[in-house]
Amino acid sequence: MIMLFRNRFLLLLALAALLAFLSLSLQFFHLIPMSAARNGASSKSRKRIMPDPVTEPPVTDPVYEALLYCNIPRVAERSMEGHAPHHFKLISVHVLIRHGDRYPLYAIPKTKRPEIDCTLMANRKPYHPKLEAFVNHMSKGSGSSFESPLNSMPLYPNHALCEMGELTQTGVVQHLQNGQLLGDIYLKKHKLLPSDWSPDQLYLETTGRSRTLQSGLALLYGFLPDFDWKKIYFRHQPSVLFCSGNCYCPVRNQYLEKEQRRQYLLRLKNSQLEQTYGEMAKIVNVPTKLLRAANPIDSMLCHFCHNVSFPCTSSGCFDMEHFKVIKMHQIEDEKERRKKRLYLGYSLLGAHPILNQTIDRMQRIAEGRKDEVFALYSAHDVTLSPVLSALGLSEARFPRFAARLIFELWQDREKPSEHSVRILYNGVDVTFHTFFCQDHHKRSSKPMCPLENLVRFVKRDMFATLDSSSTNYHDACHREGV
Ligand SMILES: *[C@@H]1O[C@H](CO)[C@@H](O)[C@H](O)[C@H]1NC(C)=O
Ligand SMILES: *[C@@H]1O[C@H](CO)[C@@H](O)[C@H](O)[C@H]1NC(C)=O
């Protein structure tokens, strides 16, 4: 009885902490748009200096970080997409997303899986006004809009007890919201697509998971409500790196192996972490190795994001302290990862094909072609993370649920042959933090980052970032000795 009481008390404490952080983060996010709006009114033409995307709280807080990761849908979101001086015209947009909130990929041994309902319901939170219309529209979708094997997948989540890895209602709402936000900016404000847009003006691609397909559809529905199914075609991407046709790269794999070795050694050094896994293994009565292999943080994050208490057995409960220790280790691991640069080596080679594909599309638009004006790649954390790192944005946070990375292409109306790019991560302009434009202001008085910088980086300079002898993908992938 006392045991039970104590557990409840601890749970309440944890919930109180969660609520405190929720309200803190709400304040944090409400304050910013207000001051941004105030500045914006008086200085519309002034060059915008964006705050650092990685402004940290004074000390790294694992609970705060976990809340950002959950990305619980909020009403007002601040975003800098679609901002440029007046004489620039937006001519193309490329969106790379991580799927929305999902059910865990792993189960914690010998515990009940969290009871989360993956059907979509208007009376459940979080809600989006387009939710019912989305379900209705999806039920009219036809297999001919999808490349095999996507055509055999459900178009929205629909299990009363979520399946492993299934997109949740939170995940759908996150991407309806993303899509609506991008539609307001790119379609309503910038008229990126004409009202009678043609099928070849969209390029849609997703990995073969239901959660990425459904996330892509939710974003697309928020972006283009009631789109014509006959104009939609989702391509299937077999590789999480989006490298199809160019995936063979032995040096990339060597970097990955070394990176995994680094990760392993760092874990061994963390005695608090080992002790925590030990305690948790005792609670579920399995060998520590087995518990660790079940990646309990993935499951615990689901409990955390859905405000469901952590699992218990007759020997005790997983608790907030366990959660904090593992989450904190993840954060420290990312810090070391940045320093050692093995992951950077992996990322530069892993992200090249998708960056190459993106600049190829941009260059064709810049030359005056009108197809593939809007591209959407629906992907995973293991897609976004290397792309961020390869661009030089390694300080950016690990991709949260429904994270979005956007490439905008702009044309200077006063000098129509000149094109510029902007890069935005979760609505924050990070263009001048990238490898290819971080020194731009020192060398140039132009307000925007030239497309050539990105092209030069992807075609050549990215290979020299680690190894000055390689100048192309093939050589960099096959050189001797990493
Ligand atoms: C979390 O769940 C508890 C009940 O289990 C509830 O009282 C509380 O309001 C919930 N918190 C949030 C943020 O939804
Ligand atoms: C880069 O893009 C070009 C043009 O589409 C293509 O021919 C080439 O195979 C691509 N290279 C890589 C390594 O992705």
What do you see in this structure?
Strand 8 and strand 9 form a beta hairpin. The chain is globular, with a radius of gyration of 23 Å. The strands form 2 sheets. Strands 1, 2, 3, 6, 7, 8, 9 and 10 form an 8-stranded mixed β-sheet that branches. The protein has a two-stranded antiparallel sheet with strand order 4-5. The model is unreliable at 1-54 (pLDDT under 50). It has helices at residues 2-42, 62-70, 131-138, 169-189, 210-223, 250-269, 271-284, 288-293, 296-305, 320-340, 342-366, 381-391, 440-443, 451-464, 473-478, and strands at 88-98, 202-207, 234-237, 312-313, 316-317, 374-379, 404-412, 419-425, 428-429, 449-450. It has 15 helices and 10 strands. The longest helix has 41 residues, at 2-42. Helices cover 46% and strands 11% of the residues. The relative contact order is 0.16. The chain has 482 residues and is an alpha/beta fold. The structure holds 2-acetamido-2-deoxy-beta-D-glucopyranose (2 copies).
The averaged pLDDT comes out at 89
Helix content: 40-55%
Class inferred from helices and paired strands: alpha/beta
Bound molecules: 2-acetamido-2-deoxy-beta-D-glucopyranose
Report the C-alpha radius of gyration, rounded.
Answer: 23 Å
Span of the ends, CA to CA: 59 Å
Report the uncertain regions: 1-54
The secondary-structure element order is HHEHHEHEHHHHEEHHEHEEEHEHH
Overall strand count = 10
Shape: globular
Roughly what fraction of the amino acids lie in strands? Answer: 5-15%
Main β sheet profile: 8 strands, mixed
Enumerate how many helices there are, as a single number: 15
GO biological process, one term: glycosaminoglycan biosynthetic process
Subcellular location: Golgi apparatus membrane
Protein name: 2-phosphoxylose phosphatase 1
Main location: Golgi
